[in-house]
Structure to design on (150 residues):
């Protein structure tokens, strides 16, 4: 079974725009803010024999105070398995997808800390995480934006 098509949104923003990560309360008041971390568009291709990891926030739910709470998840020790037309696949034994719901979009990094992919789906039956093939998607986006030749 192949993964479902991805729903991918992007925006080109000016270099001087500073995107902020905000913590807000239930009334919408800003409790804290800091510059959001952004990664460059330099992607590494996965290779067999390297270790991969991702970090994301999972299983969001409202608590009794109506605060949206998510759990931090850091998955390490994944191995690269294969690539198809739009996805890279990484595997790790003992992986349980239910523990990672909501981690879609989390960066998958190689052992050198380079961006390889973004999490899009997990499968318990194959102990597998799939991530979008960023180099291929990025090329398509740049072509659509007129920044690459036809």
């Amino acid at each position: 079974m192949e993964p479902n098509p991805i729903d991918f949104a992007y925006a080109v923003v000016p270099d001087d725009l500073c995107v902020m990560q905000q913590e807000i309360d239930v009334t919408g008041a800003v409790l804290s803010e800091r510059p959001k971390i952004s990664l460059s568009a330099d992607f590494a291709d996965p290779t067999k024999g390297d270790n991969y990891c991702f970090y994301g926030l999972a299983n969001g739910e409202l608590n009794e105070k109506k605060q949206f709470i998510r759990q931090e998840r850091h998955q390490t020790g994944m191995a690269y398995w294969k690539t198809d037309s739009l996805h890279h696949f990484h595997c790790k034994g003992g992986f349980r997808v239910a523990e990672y719901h909501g981690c879609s979009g989390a960066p998958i990094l190689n052992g050198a800390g380079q961006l390889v992919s973004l999490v899009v789906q997990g499968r318990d039956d194959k102990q597998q995480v799939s991530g979008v093939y960023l180099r291929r998607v990025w090329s398509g986006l740049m072509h659509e934006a007129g920044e690459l030749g036809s």
